[in-house]
Structures are given as structure tokens and as C-alpha cells.
Write a structure and sequence with these properties.
heterodimer; A: mainly alpha; 5 helices; B: about 400 residues; about 35% helix
Chain lengths: ~80, ~400
């Protein structure tokens, strides 16, 4: 066990926090929630990619972003890219 | 036949507080909302009025417009639904500089962190048409929609443009106004640098000691409806926009025509548009910036346009209470004028105490003056003039 490991849980927490910053309804935020349900649009997703790059040094491309439709999709994508 | 244009809703966020009533009542009570040389909307807490998403997606100038628009639409009775088809409702909102706060913030980010860190929201926040677009989105207004940009005349141009759309039957109703949030490091220092703002930090229009304007911020919004639309739904009519005209000085980038030619032509044309005579006017809501040049040329313009009547009609400046709201000024002052006529009061020019021998009109020193009209409803004009030589004048009648 190392302190530098970034867990999936930690990434999920960061994604949840980003969604709160975007103004999504906190009660609606969960792994299965879709962007549509959370009122997250393309402008939010550009900012989401900036946050992930700042936080984890991982660049999400347009094609990556297009593949995500749920919170879990995003967490899985970021987790896989960091690994 | 053209429809008379009714005002059915008023909204304002001004340095005197949130709400059109705060604006007119505090002004008439003699309150000056200037501190440390600026007139900020310090009572306005965006979080009290707007969701996180609304705040994130709106520069302060758009936030101010959103809150003023909600007040105006509520008063018009539109909260539970639009009175006509959404496609028949326009939205026109003026601004002087638009999202200047966003521009400054993003420039800091570009310099400090590089282009990759710029916000994807930067452009939609900074664009000068954002307030009109966002208000239309918020309320689902689908008719003609755009922003007006004419410096300190922008708010009056927006009201005038919307009035024409309604009068000509292009739309049945139009949400109009102006908004500004330019008390930012760059904007305020640029005004200081050009010598336009008051060194004493006092807004005293028409006074001999006036030394420049005091920078303010805020928004004013009005709901305009054709008389037939308003009557059909039995709406409460607060007043009327009965005339509008706009001209250009074609003289100088910032200085008004020293003889007040362009502004006099705008006043005369607006009165003609309303079908009024000079003697019909009960109150002049002046542009009255507290700059040496404006107040002199505006006084001359009033004399040229109104003739001897100019000496009989009370003339006062909202800017004595709330400073200069730039592109919001014309709209906030139109709101104040409607509210003043509702109360049958000519509000005072605050801080006025030392007459300028050249400026010899009745500037309503001291306190508000009662407007007494024997026949019909009281009538006022509201003047707005902007850098670039823009002149826009509105003729406003009170409800009878």
C-alpha cells in the first residue's frame, strides 16, 4: 500500500465535487446519474476535462468525453487513464 | 393602426438596493448610495437570487439583469406563464461594456496559467449580448432578441427599440432594459485615467462644484406590452412609453456637442413622436452626469428643445443618488421615472447646493416635489447620452 495511489473512490469524490461546482442537484448526484439528468452540458464537460488535467495530469480528448454519458462512465474513464 | 405601448412591469437592482421601490423611495428620501467614490450594488447577494448554475453561467452584469427581469415579469403577472405566444415576445437589453469582469479575470488566467486554463464559459459570459440572451432563455422569450451597445445611452436605446417593436406590431410584448457591472479594476481605472470620474467622489449634477461622474453598477428592466395585449388580459398598467427618438452628435468621441445640438434634436423628436407639446411635460429625468460638459450642454439642449417651458419644468438627475450606471443608466432611470410618475413626484437632485450661473433651470434642490397635473396623467421625458455622441430620449406617461 502506498500513499500515492489514486483510488477509484477518490476519483469519484472529485467527480462528485466537480458536479456540485457546476451546479448539479446534489441529491441527484450518484454513479448512475446521466449528464442529462444532472443538467451537465458540453460547456461543463470542457471544464470537467480541465479539472481532470489539473488534478491528475491526464488529458481527456473530445472522443473520450463523447463516450461518457453517466458519472460512472467518467469515473471509469479517468481511473483507466491514470492507471 | 399602431398600438400604444404600456408598461406593465418594473424591475431594478441599483446601488440603493434590490427592487424598483428601493430605488425610487430611497432616492426621494434623499439617500445617496455612494461609498468610497463608487456606487456599488452592495446589497445584492447573487446567491440569494440565483442558483449555482445561473451564477456560474452569467457575468455580474447578466446576473443583475436576471434579477431585475424576475421582478419586472412578476409585477407584470407573467410568473405563472407568458401572456401571449413566446414567439411574439421580444427581449432587448443594453450595456456599455458587457462582461468586463470576466474579460479581466480571464486575462489574468491567460497571463498566469496559459491559454489551456481559460474557461469554456469565458466567451458566453463576456459577450455584450449575454444579458438579453440569458433573460430570453430564462423566461422562454422567443421573439426578436439582442443587445444594444451605445455606452451610456444603451439602456434608453433598448427601451426605445423595444417600444418600436411593440408599437409597430412586430411583437406583442417586449422585455427591455439595461445592465452594467463595470466597477472592476481595469474599467474603473480607465475612467479615472481619462479624467471622466469625480475626484471628490461626489455626484452633484448641475452644481457649480461638479467635477465628474461617480461610477455605478446595476440593472433596470421593464415589461412593455401593446395596449390591446395588456387590456385583453386586464393587466395593471403602470405607465406608457409614448415617444422615443435617438440622434447622433457626430461631433466628438467623448465630448457632447457644446451647443447641445444632437441632444436637443433627440428631445424635440421624441416629443413630436409622442404627439406632445413642450408645455405637456411635467418632469425631466435628466442624463445629468455631474460632469462639467454634460450638464452644461444638456441644460442648453433642454432650452433649445423646450423653449421657455424649460425654465418651468422640474429637472433632476437619478445619478445624484446612484452615480452613473453607464449602459444600465437609461433603463434604470426609465424605471425611476415611471415610479416617480406613479407617485406623482419629481425626485430631487441630491447634493445640489451651489448653483452654476450658466445652468439656470429648476434642478429640484432639497426634496421631492409634487407633480400636479390638472388634465390627464403626468408626463416626463428621460434623457440618455453616451460617449460616441449617442442621444436617446424617452417620453413616459404615468398611469391615469
Amino acid at each position: 500500500m502506498t500513499d500515492t495511489t489514486i483510488t477509484r473512490e477518490a476519483i469519484q469524490e472529485r467527480v462528485f465535487a466537480a458536479l456540485v461546482e457546476f451546479g448539479a442537484d446534489e441529491d441527484a448526484i450518484g454513479p448512475r446519474a446521466t449528464w442529462e439528468e444532472l443538467d451537465v452540458d458540453s460547456l461543463d464537460l470542457v471544464e470537467f476535462a480541465q479539472i481532470i488535467e489539473d488534478e491528475y495530469g491526464v488529458e481527456l480528448r473530445e472522443a473520450d468525453i463523447e463516450q461518457m454519458t453517466t458519472v460512472d462512465d467518467a469515473v471509469t474513464m479517468v481511473t483507466a487513464r491514470i492507471a | 393602426m399602431s398600438d400604444r405601448v404600456a408598461i406593465t412591469g418594473l424591475g431594478a437592482v441599483s446601488p440603493l438596493g434590490v427592487g424598483a421601490d428601493a430605488l425610487i423611495d430611497r432616492w426621494c428620501a434623499g439617500e445617496v448610495a455612494i461609498a468610497d467614490g463608487v456606487a456599488a450594488c452592495s446589497d445584492f447577494e447573487p446567491g440569494e437570487w440565483l442558483t449555482v448554475k445561473q451564477r456560474r453561467r452569467a457575468d455580474r452584469f447578466t446576473q443583475l439583469a436576471l434579477v431585475a427581469a424576475v421582478e419586472a415579469l412578476e409585477q407584470a403577472g407573467w410568473s405563472s406563464g407568458l401572456p401571449v405566444e413566446a414567439e411574439r415576445i421580444g427581449c432587448i437589453v443594453g450595456t456599455g461594456v458587457g462582461g468586463i469582469g470576466t474579460i479581466e479575470d480571464q486575462h489574468d488566467i491567460l497571463r498566469d496559467r496559459g491559454a489551456g486554463a481559460l474557461s469554456p464559459l469565458a466567451v458566453p459570459l463576456m459577450m455584450a449580448n449575454a444579458a438579453s440572451g440569458v433573460v430570453a432563455i430564462e423566461h422562454g422569450l422567443k421573439g426578436e432578441c439582442y443587445g444594444t451597445v451605445s455606452a451610456c445611452a444603451a439602456g434608453a436605446h433598448a427601451v426605445g427599440a423595444g417600444m418600436r417593436l411593440v408599437r409597430q406590431g412586430v411583437v406583442d410584448a417586449c422585455v427591455v432594459g439595461g445592465s452594467e457591472a463595470g466597477i472592476t479594476p481595469l474599467a474603473s481605472n480607465c475612467f479615472v485615467g481619462m479624467g471622466a470620474t469625480s475626484k471628490t467622489g461626489i455626484s452633484r449634477p448641475f452644481d457649480a462644484r461638479r467635477d465628474g461622474f461617480v461610477l455605478g453598477e446595476g440593472a433596470g428592466m421593464l415589461v412593455l406590452e401593446g395596449e390591446s395585449t395588456a387590456r385583453a388580459r386586464d393587466a395593471s398598467v403602470l405607465g406608457w412609453i409614448d415617444g422615443y427618438a435617438a440622434t447622433a452628435d457626430a461631433h466628438h468621441l467623448t465630448a457632447p456637442d457644446p451647443e447641445g445640438d444632437g441632444s436637443a434634436r433627440a428631445i424635440a423628436a421624441a416629443i413630436a413622436d409622442a404627439g406632445w407639446r413642450a408645455s405637456d411635460i411635467d418632469y425631466v429625468n435628466a442624463h445629468g452626469t455631474s460632469t462639467p460638459l454634460n450638464d452644461r450642454s444638456e441644460t442648453l439642449a433642454l432650452k433649445r428643445a423646450l423653449g421657455p417651458v424649460a425654465h418651468e419644468v422640474p429637472v433632476s438627475s437619478t445619478k445624484s443618488a446612484i452615480g452613473h450606471l453607464l449602459g444600465a443608466a437609461g433603463a434604470v432611470e426609465a424605471v425611476a421615472t415611471v415610479a416617480a410618475l406613479q407617485r406623482r413626484l419629481a425626485p430631487p437632485t441630491l447634493s445640489y447646493g451651489e448653483p452654476d450661473p450658466e445652468l439656470d433651470l429648476d434642478y429640484v434642490a432639497g426634496g421631492p416635489r409634487e407633480i400636479v397635473r390638472r388634465d390627464g396623467s403626468p408626463r416626463a421625458i428621460s434623457n440618455s447620452f453616451g460617449f460616441g455622441g449617442h442621444n436617446a430620449v424617452l417620453c413616459i406617461s404615468g398611469a391615469s
